[in-house]
């Protein structure tokens, strides 16, 4: 299993090996439970043990054969979770008490991902090279960056692990915040039942947006899911950037053909672009490329969800909370829709393989249109595209 792209179009889990998924799910839960317990009890001692490339042997159980696993940077990931408002108890509750919903990606990677039942977390399989980039390059810098940039669009990583499979291969996976999670409950002191047109009102999140009427859902559309009417995966390139028939996630050329702009208002657009620029500069300093801006568009199917999202946006901005830009409203009159934004898939280093891929693609396509380019070129083109679509 290779790298997964969370923004790629998923297939349903009906075609997947149910027994394999069940075994992997059991191991993921066991590994994370063990990691949290050892980190809480031993802290630095356990972290140093993991730095020595030592694997932990897990005994055979009724659910799984014996296997070995490796935990990466447990203290750093614990600090990232804390920084993002998720304590260890909630983290394991989201994972350990869930029945995962598995999906395969339609892309070339052959990877897969799972969502927790509460739609707070995503578990993604990744490649060996991506694992190295995350633990050696990204996480040490991301922790410091997120401390200083609470409004970053970079979707945070909460854990990195690997374990052996019965066929002697290894599975590496990350745990990340799920971009389309429902908004949390607001403080009771802020509750109100004002109509959506009253932008100053504050209410607590309630029921989901209702039935799926042709919308795109990464998730099963239950009370925990946020149904998106459209999802775009944007890289700023045009070669092979059109969704194939049957794919639910649209790409750059699809957006251009539809002539879509994200109307958030001039003042907010200026703020957003300033933050995007800082995030992209950070990723360039990590020498990574091939990341995407994911934009989910949701048109509320009922008044409750409409009010909930308006109040969530207002509360976040007034209280200057982390992630205040991750959900925002369209400002066009008589067009009520919301945008969910995040930068994902920032695990790819521009190494020898990518340089070779660039040379091959450049022989067949205009070099300025391909996604495989050096980090500085990638970031410049990415920002040029982003500047055009937020107004």
Automatic annotation (TrEMBL):
SMART domains: PIPKc (SM00330). Signal peptide: none annotated. InterPro entries: PInositol-4-P-4/5-kinase_C_sf, PInositol-4-P-4/5-kinase_core, PInositol-4-P-5-kinase_N, PInositol-4/5-P-5/4-kinase. One of its GO terms (cellular component) is plasma membrane. Residues 187-226 are annotated as: Disordered. One of its GO terms (molecular function) is 1-phosphatidylinositol-5-phosphate 4-kinase activity. It comes from the Eukaryota. SUPFAM superfamilies: SAICAR synthase-like. Keywords: ATP-binding, Kinase, Nucleotide-binding, Transferase. This is PIPK domain-containing protein.
């Amino acid at each position: 299993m290779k790298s997964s792209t969370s923004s790629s179009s998923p297939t349903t889990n009906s075609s997947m090996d149910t027994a394999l998924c069940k075994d992997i799910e059991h191991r993921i839960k066991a590994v994370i439970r063990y990691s949290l317990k050892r980190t809480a009890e031993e802290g630095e001692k356990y972290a140093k043990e993991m730095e020595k490339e030592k694997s932990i042997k897990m005994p055979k159980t009724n659910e799984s054969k014996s296997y070995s696993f490796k935990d990466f940077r447990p203290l750093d990931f614990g600090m990232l979770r804390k920084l993002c408002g998720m304590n260890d108890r909630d983290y394991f509750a989201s994972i350990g008490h869930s029945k995962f919903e598995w999906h395969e990606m339609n892309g070339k990677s052959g990877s897969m991902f799972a969502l927790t039942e509460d739609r707070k977390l995503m578990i993604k399989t990744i490649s060996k090279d991506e694992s190295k980039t995350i633990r050696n390059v990204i996480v040490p810098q991301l922790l410091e960056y997120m401390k200083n940039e609470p409004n970053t669009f970079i979707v945070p990583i909460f854990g990195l692990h690997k374990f052996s499979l019965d066929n002697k291969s290894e599975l590496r996976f990350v745990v990340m915040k799920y971009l389309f999670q429902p908004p949390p409950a607001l403080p009771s002191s802020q509750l109100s039942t004002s109509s959506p047109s009253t932008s100053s009102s504050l209410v607590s999140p309630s029921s989901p947006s209702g039935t799926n009427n042709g919308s795109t859902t990464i998730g099963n559309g239950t009370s925990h899911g946020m149904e998106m009417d459209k999802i775009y995966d944007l890289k700023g390139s045009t070669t092979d950037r059109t969704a194939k028939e049957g794919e639910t996630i649209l790409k750059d050329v699809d957006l251009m053909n539809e002539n879509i702009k994200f109307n958030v208002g001039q003042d907010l657009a200026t703020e957003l672009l300033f933050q995007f620029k800082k995030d992209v500069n950070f990723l360039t300093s990590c020498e990574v490329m091939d990341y995407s801006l994911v934009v989910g568009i949701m048109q509320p199917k009922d008044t409750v969800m409409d009010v909930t999202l308006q109040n969530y946006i207002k509360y976040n901005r007034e209280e200057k909370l982390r992630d205040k830009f991750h959900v925002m409203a369209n400002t066009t009159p008589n067009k009520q829709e919301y945008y969910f934004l995040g930068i994902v898939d920032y695990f790819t280093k521009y190494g020898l393989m990518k340089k070779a891929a660039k040379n091959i693609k450049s022989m067949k396509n205009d070099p300025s249109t391909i996604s495989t380019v050096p980090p500085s070129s990638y970031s410049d083109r990415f920002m040029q595209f982003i500047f055009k679509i937020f107004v």
